[in-house]
Amino acid sequence: MKKLTTSLLAIFCTLIAPAQFANDYLLAADKYFADGDYYSAAQYYEKFLADKGKGGKSGFNPYEVSAGSNKKAPKAASSREQVIYNLAESYRQLHYHEKALPYYEQADKKQFPLAAFHYATTLKALGRYEEAATAFQNFTATYATKDLYTAAAERELKSLDYIKEQLARKNLNRYTVEKAGAINGEGGTYAPAWLNNETLLFTSTRPDATDKNKSNSNRIYQASYSNGTPGAIMKTAVPQGKDIQQGVVAVTPTGNTLFLTRWEIAKGKKTSTIYSSTKTGDTWSDPVAVANLNVAGSNSQQPFVTPDGKNIIFSSDRAGGQGGFDLWMADLTEATVGTPTNMGSSINTSWDEQAPSYHAASKSFVFSSNGRVGMGGFDFYYSNGAVNNLSEPKNFGYPVNSIKDDIYFASKGSATNILEAVLFSSDRDAACCLELFSLNKVKLPKQITGRVLNCEGRQPLAGVAVSITDASNKVIAQKTTDASGNYAFTLAEFEALKASASQKGYFAGNVNFIGPADAEEESFTAPDICLNIIPEEAIRLDNVYYDFNKATLQPESYPSLDTLVNILNENPSILIELAAHTDSKGTDEYNQNLSQARAKSVVDYLISKGIDKARLLPKGYGETMPVADNENTDGSDNPEGRQRNRRTEFKVLKTGSE
């Protein structure tokens, strides 16, 4: 009987053990998930699912209590459907997209409607764009709530089109993107910030030999650079207590104050706070929380100090923003930090904006966002201008951005090429974590071509002098047209320009233009310039009017005369005769005097507009040079003829080349 009892007990324990183990796995997984420890949660959810498929009876329920048992059911935990969804979410939070995908596929979309959205974003992150588009369309068709996720799905569909455009871009060979080499270690390496030209600060979770607990905490490191190559790497001597995560730093221009982020995760919630540390000699003080930058119950992180030291910019999810994490800015001195203000809806979205930086040479504000049309994930965007007066953000495009997360950007580039010497962090080629990448874009000169033609026959003109001026009227190039009437020149960037052409025997001509909106374009054809031949005969000035029987110009005459002002300004070497004519009414002497006075009135107007009087010869011809009959053949008056005779003309007397 004893043997029988022992055998039955062994069988009972064998049956109970899988149930107990599965129950333990699930309880542990749920706790880790609630605490935000997604790596541990994923491991235990996997153990639970694997254990559930072994040995136990079909339909095994780890919470089932047999009839007659005195044991209470264990504390309620996840259903199987919840396990599948939580496991998918755990892998998504860890950026393990390949592992997340099959669980999102299995997830009950009715019970967990956002599983359909994350399934689509996971497909996108894996580069399966057509499937992702279908998944987003299915989500928008079935998701009943109109909220951030509805808008996000519509934006993601636009992003998929954007990705196709970016991958087909011209001149991708101008970019070199590669891992930053030895500076990357085991674990994450991210958030580069230059302390000076030779010293880089960054954050890393690499193993620390001095850490007995092998905690892989986030710590601040520094690397010495020589000719673009990192040398010795060491921990920065900023005090850091046990179990404290700190990194993502910014330093004032003097190098005496360092701002950093400290964070902790408790019960699944991450709380981040901005601290500062001051340097005395070679020693950094214990960091203290910066009161003005932190708000109780909210996160403040990723500080950046502008190169002039006048502002600090950071990311926070505090109230008063556009939603999610927004970028905020405060005035800064060595002694004080001002009250932060939100950078506004032109920069911030209802999703997350993070990792701000400002490149002084090119006057470019750079940040990462997951709330705009783009490649990722988080993409890098840039806005031009002063930090308090920024343009609409633009995406840097591929390959600066990837379909993963690209965040934290540090450039040592020039005023005309912010992308020529960049360090940034990305998980584009990583199994789990952010790594540092170097980026360099070779920027070729922009090529502009144009053509000069004869206005009358549209024939090309050779040997024409072409002068190119910028918006400040500075001459930046001087060229001569070839046999085909073409000219060409290069410049660093497309900008607003004016091409002026001059040739003996022709009035000068010009055209204003600006290059293409696409900054990636490397060539542009300017509009044609056509030149009019200078005629030997006089040129009538239409719509020039005087008061009756007087020489006073009427205001309606000014537009026509201003056209003549432009001609004289564009042809600074020509001398003209300004002629006035009358009809035959009145005496010869009266008409001669009136026409001379009127010619002088026009000359006086031109002088008032800045034309040198030495270039202007007023001449009154009275009624001596009619171009039409003042009377009809039957002796009656001819009003139309008289009107044609009452005219103002100019004639080129000298071109300057004569």
What is shown here, in short?
The chain is 24% helix and 29% strand. With 658 residues, the chain is of the alpha+beta class.
Describe, in plain words, how this protein is organized in 3D:
By secondary structure, this protein is an alpha+beta fold. It has four domains: 157 residues, Tetratricopeptide repeat domain (Serine Threonine Protein Phosphatase 5, Tetratricopeptide repeat, Alpha Horseshoe), CATH 1.25.40; 190 residues, 6 Propeller (Neuraminidase), CATH 2.120.10; 86 residues, Immunoglobulin-like; 116 residues, OmpA-like domain (60s Ribosomal Protein L30, Chain: A), CATH 3.30.1330. Helices cover 24% and strands 29% of the residues. The chain is built from ten helices and 34 strands. The strands form eight sheets. Strands 6, 7, 8, 9 and 10 form a five-stranded antiparallel beta sheet that branches. Helix 5 packs antiparallel against helix 6. The longest helix has 33 residues. The relative contact order is 0.06. The N terminus is likely disordered.
Number of domains: 4
Which architecture of the largest domain per CATH?
Answer: 6 Propeller
DSSP strand count: 34
Radius of gyration: 39 Å
Helix/strand-derived category reads alpha+beta
Helix proportion of residues, in percent? Answer: 10-25%
CATH class of the largest domain: Mainly Beta
- Global mean pLDDT: 89
Helices and strands, with pairings:
Blueprint: H1 2-34, H2 38-52, H3 80-93, H4 97-106, H5 114-125, H6 129-142, H7 148-167, E1 175-179, E2 189-194, E3 199-204, E4 219-226, E5 229-235, E6 245-251, E7 257-266, E8 269-280, E9 283-284, E10 288-289, E11 300-305, E12 311-316, E13 326-331, E14 341-342, E15 353-359, E16 364-369, E17 379-386, E18 389-390, E19 394-395, E20 406-411, E21 422-426, E22 435-441, E23 446-454, E24 465-469, E25 475-480, E26 486-491, E27 497-502, E28 509-513, E29 523-525, E30 529-531, E31 539-540, H8 558-570, E32 575-581, H9 588-608, E33 616-622, H10 639-645, E34 648-654
Parallel strand pairs: 23-29, 23-30, 32-33
Antiparallel strand pairs: 1-22, 2-3, 3-4, 4-5, 6-7, 7-8, 8-9, 8-10, 11-12, 12-13, 13-14, 15-16, 16-17, 17-18, 17-19, 20-21, 21-22, 23-26, 24-25, 24-27, 27-28, 31-34, 32-34
Helix pairs in contact: 1-2, 2-3, 3-4, 4-5, 5-6, 5-7, 6-7
